[in-house]
Every structure is written in C-alpha cells, then in structure tokens.
Amino acid sequence: MRRWTLGMAIAGFVVVVLMVVTLLVLWNVYMVGDFRTIKELSRNLETVSFAPVHRAGSTLWPVLALGSGFLAVILVALSLFFTSYLVNRRYRFLQTDWLSMTTHELKLPTANVQLFAQTLQRPNLSEEDRARFVALILQETRRLDQLVSRILQARRIEGRMQEIRPERLDLRTWIQEYGRRPSSPAFRLGPGTSAVVRMDRILMESILDNLLQNATKYGDGSAPELRTSRQANWISVEVLDRGLGIPHKYRKKVFLRFFRVPGREHRRRTGTGLGLYIANSSVMLMGGSMGVKDNPEGKGSMFWFRLPVAS
Predict the structure, then answer these.
(1) What is the pLDDT of residues 270-288, one digit of tens each?
(2) Same-domain status, 234 and 296
(3) Sheet containing 188-192: which strands, arranged edge to edge?
(4) Which end of the chain has fewer surrounding CB within 10 Å, N or C?
(5) 255 assigned to some structural domain
(6) Which spans in the chain are helix H?
(7) How far apart are CA 282 and CA 164, in angstroms?
(8) CATH label of the domain that carries residue 292
C-alpha cells in the first residue's frame, strides 16, 4: 500500500474541511428558508390551508441528496485517513522493530570477529587453536555477508530492480547438487518426482537457503525434510519441520516484509523478518506461488512453493 506524504495528508484535510463548510452553509441556507416559511405560516395560521407549501426555485429532495452525498464523501475520506494512519503506524512499528533486530544481528558477528581476531594476536597460541579461531572468523564473516546480502536483495525486490536469468533445469537434479554444497543448510531429501522448469539459479538458491534456515531455526533440532511432487503443469517443493508451527491467523502475514510471529518462543530466535519475504517474492518473480500449512505428519510447519513446468 502506498504511504501518504505530509503534503497529500494536508491537501486531503483541506478538501474535507471545505466540504464540511460547504455543507454547513447550504444546510443553514435551507434552514433559514424553512424558518421564514414557518414564520409566515404562523402569521397566517387561520387562513393557511393544509396543502403543501412550495418555495420558488427550491425543493427538499435536491438538498437532502446533496447533503447526503457530502456526508458520505466525508465519511469515506475520514475512513481513508484513519486507515492510512493505522497502516503507517504499523509500518513504523515494524521498521523500528526491524532496525532493532538487524542492529543486534549485525552487532553479534562483528563483536565475535573482533574477539577472535584479538585472540589470534596472543603470542603463545597453539596452531590448533589458531586454526580453530580462523575458522570461527570465517564462519562469522559468512554470516555477516549473508545478512547484508539479504538486506540488499530485499531492497532490490522492493525497488523492482531484481534481475532474473531463467534457465531450463531439472529441478530435483539441481536440488541434489545444491545439497552437496558445503555452504548449503543441512536437509533430508525425501521422495518425489521431478520436472524441467525455467528458473534462476541464484534466486532458487536464495529461496531454499531462507526456507531451510527458517525450518532449522524454528525446528526441534532435526534436519528439515525436502520433498518434490508434480501436479499437472506445476511442480511443488515442500520443506517440512517439526518445530513451533505457525498459527493460522499469521500464515499470510509471515511473507510480509519485517513481520515476525508474536510470542515468546518465536521471539527467542533472532531474525530480521526478511527471509520469507525474499523467498516468496523470488518465487513470484519466477511465476510461482508460496504458502504454509501444518505439517501433515505431526507438529511443525510445511512451507511449500510451486513453479510452472517448462513446455
């Protein structure tokens, strides 16, 4: 939803005020005319008949219609202003919450890298410990790079600047290759079928990274399971976990930017609220759709997305 600027809000407020003033003036003019009619009737009460009185150039229905129309427009305008205010307030709250979480996410690996680097400066450090701290520095650096890349990708998607380079690839074969990469999150590849799709390698890698990391973060410690299935001209990918699950009322909101499921257990897991937004937006860029439902085999969630099969 487009957020209103201050100038738009002021202009809208001025228009509403002018409409109210116009309505009051017209209504007062009408009431003054009625008052004069009543005063004239009171003076000639004995001679007046019960026939309806018509004033020249004025009728009741146009005034009522005009007044009702003005009131309806005013109510709609006020409703729009109120809705815009609530949306902007919610957006500002999410932004503030996101900035707080992102600052924490950036601060932690930065502090760890600094601590490990200072440890490496000790003269009596063994080669085994030195190699271990170097590995930890590389791990935190990758984590920091991933966070920054996620923020930049969300910005490209929001600004419609995300490039797409589709290729004809066998989806399940590519997923198997993806799982053999050292940098890929751990998962179990379940049974399923395959099909050739037109997809962007980088976007697909980002989708699986976000879904699998999300499943691991909110899971029970076991590796999430990934399945594939085909229905007509679509092929679906399902990521199942046995974690906290997502309440039904939040299942559409989890794909919004900055949104995180309320609750102590969910908030204990750190995050930026961008992973599912990026995954869903990337799937849509490739012509697919994404959703979430309960894990059909027990507790937890099943995130799924589908892509059209290449003709």
Answers:
(1) 666 788 888 999 999 999 9
(2) yes
(3) 188-192, 225-231, 234-240, 301-308, 289-294
(4) C
(5) yes
(6) 6-43, 60-120, 127-158, 171-179, 201-217, 264-267, 275-285
(7) 9
(8) 3.30.565.10
Rounded to whole angstroms, the Cα distance separating 225 from 223 reads: 7
Structure tokens at 131: 């190699």
Instruction: Supply 130's token pair.
Output: 């030195």
Tell me the mean pLDDT in the region 219-246: 89
Specify burial of residue 183 (Cβ count, 10 A radius: 0-12, 13-18, 19+).
exposed
Both 290 and 187 in a single domain?
yes
**46 found inside a domain:** no
Residues of the chain with pLDDT > 90: what percent? Answer: 21
Cβ(213)–Cβ(149) under 8 Å? Answer: no
pLDDT digits (tens, 9 = 90+) for 171-217: 999 999 999 988 888 999 998 898 999 999 989 998 999 899 888 88
Continuous H helices in 180-289: 201-217, 264-267, 275-285
Query: Which of the listed residues 132, 158, 184 is the one where a domain comes to its end?
Result: 158
Contact 306, 218 (CB under 8 A): no
Residue with tokens 């109510």: 75
Tell me which residue range forms the domain holding 181. 167-308
Query: 292: which 2 tokens?
Result: 């979430």
Burial 93-106 (b: 16+ CB within 10 A, else e): ebeeebeebbeebe
Distance CA 180, CA 238 (A): 19
Cβ-count burial of 218 within 10 angstroms (0-12 exposed, 13-18 middle, 19+ buried)?
buried
Between strands 301-308 and 289-294, the pairing is antiparallel
Q: Check if the beta carbon of residue 171 is closer than 8 Å to that of residue 237.
A: yes
